[in-house]
Amino acid sequence: MNKRIIIIILAFLFSNYIVKAQISLSDNYKVDYTNPQEFEIGGITVTGAQFLDNNALTLISGLSVGEKIKVPSDKISKAINNLWKQGLFSDVSIKITKIYNGLIFFDISLKERPRLSKFSFNGVKKAEADNLRDEIKLTKGDVVTENLILNSESKVRNYLIGKGYLNNEVQITQKNDTAITNSVILNINIKKNGKVKVNDIIIEGNNDLLKRKIYHAMKNTKKKHWWNIFKKSKYIEKDYKEDKGKIIDKYNTLGFRDARIISDSIYKNDAKTINIKIKVSEGHKYYFRNITWVGNTKYTDKQLAEVLKIKKGDIYNQAVLDANLFMSQESTDISSLYMDDGYLFFSVTPTEINVENDSIDLEMRIYEGRQATINKVTIVGNTKTRDHVILREIRTKPGQLFSRSDIIRSQRELAQLRYFNAEKLNVTPKPNQADGTVDIEYTVEETSSDQVELSGGWGAGRVVGTLGVSFNNFSARNIFKKNAWAPLPSGDGQMLSMRAQSNGLYYQSYNASFTEPWLGGKKPNALSVSLYHSVQTNGLTRKEVGRESIFINGLTIGLGRRLTWPDDYFTLYQDISFQNYLLNNWGYTFMFQNGRANNISYSISFGRNSVDQPIYARSGSLVNIRLQATPPYSLLNNKDYGKMEASEKYKWIEYHKWKFNSSWFTSLAGNLVLNTRCQFGYLGHYNSTIGTSPFGRFYVGGDGLTGYALDDREVVAMRGYANQSLTPANGASIYDKYTIELRYPISLNPMATVYVLGFAEGGNAWTRFDSFNPFEFKRSAGAGVRIFLPMFGLLGLDWGYGFDEIPGAPSANKGQFHFSIGQSID
Q1: Residue 342 to residues 303, 348, 697, 803: CA-CA distances in angstroms?
Q2: Is residue 581 within 8 Å of residue 549, measured between CB atoms?
Q3: pLDDT for residue 365
Q4: Which of 196, 366, 453, 570 could bridge 468 with an S-S bond, Cβ 3.0-4.6 Å?
């Protein structure tokens, strides 16, 4: 009882003290704290509030004019507490300013906390500061409280910890802003102190899975080793959490479906490194036993079992089960089987009906539903490309049965157009189960596809300037519509390019080409037309005596078709080309000085292109076989070419040229891609008396940039060697080249796609087929970078080291830099 009385007395005295501290009186008014009196509030004033509304503050306090109130009382305490809870003030008090005729007048005296005028970061780069601004979300005018400062410090620390800076130091200091009343500037001072690395990863509890396989499963958290090139040993908390999940995923693939991490800990090794200890419980290894099917009417149990590809006694692998049911990369899973035949509403639920010792029985419960018919196909996001250009590439048509493979293929075709951001292409099926239909919405994001080429090259001992433009989404039908020029008529998917090269009087070249990819608008038959004209002289004008010149004029007309056999990735392209050479006292390149040479040829190319996207491909292949041939004039005219002058012998050029190239893309891990390539070329002749044509020969070595050439030569790049250094004198009639390349992207932004690469390649060139040896090639290796800018195309820089010496050219191999523009060095 005595304890209770003491507590009550102390509480009373404390409350009396609080009330006295809260109520301040002028000297004219006295309050008897032992005898509370009742008053009516006659008025309330607010002082000290600069940025806040006085009426709102009075309302928050809970006091109101006309209200009866005892003085002293807990209402005043509550009023002060109500204002304190807003967190806006550093001092709150209520004063009695007047007592008159039963009325009492109060003044709420406030001292506002300072407000934020601006803040800055010290100790980090601008890009990091921008990210931190988004993280802490401070804005001008925020009330600066202790909680705001502590919260901001915590967010900055957590952000840095997430980036691997575990030992970071963050301190926020305040400085009065003399330009703005009651405002402060916050300086956020940061010491990152370097990223913390992982010294060691200790695994305990593993009996069936080797530690090195667990380390391999952890894709982003690695121990500190000198050979970790692509994955550093920095500790990133988010990556570590993901890697713990990947350890369990690895166990699950081996049948240990009960595997779990019992505990894990992170502890300091030294100032710059940590150790990680992970203890696992593997559990038992399980196997598939009996798999039964329920609800299937479209396909038999045997057919479904063949697609599932899981047999009794196989290790229980959840990843394989899910892939073969729902999402195999080759679209050979059960869901694809149904959905490619219109069964959009299909579902399959694997259910464990019996677990006995180490064996699991599964029942596949299938709901087939009804076949869905496509109702509407719409496109969203195209601001330049017209709907009909997109729709003709899309394989899902209204009235057809729904097909998932058609959707995947449509995405691939849209990516190949290069009009849209391949990383942002999206398809949204909108099913209506009530009537068995589905609307399909394709979402695209336009990106620039036009290109400008502005470059300089070196040819014939002189600098050659090049200016070219390519409009890859042109609209010829709108060329005469004034309002369509913004800045050019575009959106119909046609291609128009123009290019000029010159170094003044010595050399000039002009060419233009136009391609209509859908001739007639109904089928993907591509018509292309190109014209070119060039002239080279010894620098003298037509009026000057002693002028030497060569004129070349040409026209090519081609027609390409998409095939449906052997599959619809195949294409067939044919063209007819005419070139006319006019020589006047020209004694530099050709075997005669005066006269004409004519080159009429027919070309046919048969190829297959299943590459997923053109800029940074991750899967698919490209294979092409091409034959270019002229008529065999010498076999038809019965002339004796052994007695002819060169000008007569080559008046009608004859040859047959065979070319093969292939390129394969394989995704290894994440965005790391392996690209393997093979090339082969052969220039043959009909008549041994004439021999190999001096036109169209192969020149191997270097970066593939030629400056200019007048003999229709084909330049084949070969990194690690000087330009054309692997070529016999006067060119080769046969060559081969093999390349292995590892690619890794730095940025997949369509406005600036950047990837690095490492390569190893080999190649060689020969003058005669009987001396050809596919295993006798020059070797090189190196690294490079590719930058794709929509305006300029693909820019490349490579450094290659040639391992094999070139007789008579001691500087042609070893370290070589190579630059490319508008092309890939392949």
Answers
A1: 18, 15, 53, 57
A2: no
A3: 97
A4: 453
